[in-house]
Specification:
Number of strands: 13
Structural class: alpha/beta
Helix content: 25-40%
Strand order of the largest sheet: 3-2-1-4-5-6-7
Oligomer: single chain
CATH class of the largest domain: Alpha Beta
Strand content: 5-15%
CATH architecture of the largest domain: 3-Layer(aba) Sandwich
Radius of gyration: 21 Å
Number of helices: 14
Length: about 375
């Protein structure tokens, strides 16, 4: 069986689907090891996988400009990280390396790896090529400003020189021209909706047969994108509606900093699948995982994008599919309340979401991704 090494960026929604694919590969007898920044290690080990800490993740962070997240920029693009990743691959001698699509330091090193390489994309590709190009341009520009030699930023070099590009969405939800060389390497495997072990069922103060609509609010759960003000606006919006509200904040903010409302409960983490089975509306930042999870349940949405490059395009796509309303990222409580009121009152949004849920039914993105990775391994052995 194969030794798989995953060079991972654990920001935002990238790690849970990675763990889902790792689980599917492990169930087939393969051994998966993750390498990543210090914050990744306990999450990976809690999921039952071996983790290697990239100890030089932030060694050069002080050299990066404060235009973006200095530590993230250092981890994703610094020469120190690239050097350590090359040493890890040399030491581990994996049969295959999987690299996060947002990780220029790892992608640029891939030509030195003596094994097949796979890019893992945790959101759409074809309908999001301009945002993807802008994101990688920005990360590498920060590296250059820090005084380090530039890296390539074009996706034809960073992604398409790898052996395979796995995209965790349906092709029907990623429509757009294939403006990349070797587009035949792209595989749409469907959403990978893994729930980390800390996402447990939570008790609600209302009975299961309470007819009051339940609204789930889930913005980014990562510290990089945390906003107490945004969560508070959502609480204040819910307070003015005849609904029950559930807020999950993850590690993004301290729940104690939020002012509660009588009809709202706040949790650090929760089982979103369980909550969505009881939910009438999802209010989200437009992260791909929450977007796909809500669509799989046939739920309409109000989307208030955060800072990640895919969130605003996802919000516009959801509005274009007729499954919800997209708001500006600085939307206040009044704007959120009116959008929630409109989506709850118009059954068309729910009907459109249910139509997409039929496409997503029985799609196992993790298993499909594992199948593609195994096919590449067999091809490499045969070659």
């Amino acid at each position: 069986m194969a030794q798989v090494l995953w060079l991972n960026w654990s920001g935002g929604g990238n790690l849970p689907p990675s763990l889902g694919v790792a689980r599917a590969l492990t169930e087939r007898g393969h051994h998966v090891t993750f390498a990543g920044r210090p914050e990744m290690v306990p999450r990976v080990e809690r999921a039952g996988f071996r983790a290697i800490e990239v100890t030089r993740a932030y060694e050069q962070a002080d050299r990066f400009p404060a235009k973006w997240l200095k530590q993230a920029a250092s981890y994703l693009s610094s020469p120190a990280v690239a050097e350590e990743l090359r040493a890890i691959v040399t030491s581990e001698q994996p049969d295959i390396v999987i690299i996060d699509s947002m990780f220029p330091a790892a992608l640029s090193e891939a030509t030195h790896f003596a094994c097949p390489t796979v890019v893992m994309v945790h959101t759409a590709v074809l309908r999001m090529l301009p945002p993807w190009r802008n994101q990688l341009d920005m990360i590498v520009a920060l590296r250059t400003e820090a005084g380090f030699p530039p890296l390539p930023t074009d996706l034809d070099t960073m992604w398409m020189q790898q052996d395979l590009v796995i995209v965790s969405t349906l092709k029907s939800l990623d429509e757009g021209p294939v403006e990349l060389r070797h587009g035949e390497k792209i595989r749409h495997v469907g959403p990978i909706l893994e729930m980390e072990r800390h996402g447990a069922r939570v008790p609600l103060p209302w009975s299961d047969d309470d007819p009051t609509p339940l609204v789930l609010v889930s913005f980014s759960t990562s510290p990089e994108q945390g906003s107490s003000a945004k969560f508070q606006d959502a609480i204040d919006a819910l307070a003015g509606l005849p609904v029950h509200g559930v807020i999950t904040v993850g590690d993004s903010v301290d729940p104690a900093t939020l002012r509660p409302a009588d009809n709202v409960v706040i949790f650090a983490t929760a089982d979103h699948d369980d909550l969505m089975r009881r939910t009438a509306l999802v209010v989200t930042h437009g992260g791909h995982g929450t977007l796909m999870r809500a669509l799989r349940q046939g739920l309409p949405m109000v989307i208030v994008p955060g800072m990640a490059h895919d969130q605003a395009p996802n919000a516009m796509a959801a509005e274009g599919w007729g499954v919800g309303l997209a708001l500006p990222r600085d939307a206040n409580a009044d704007a959120m309340r009116e959008a929630m009121r409109e989506v709850l009152a118009d059954p068309t949004y729910r009907e459109n979401a249910l139509a997409i849920s039929h496409e997503l039914a029985n799609v196992d993105g993790a298993s499909n991704a594992a199948t593609e990775i195994e096919a590449l391994l067999r091809h490499n052995i045969a070659g």
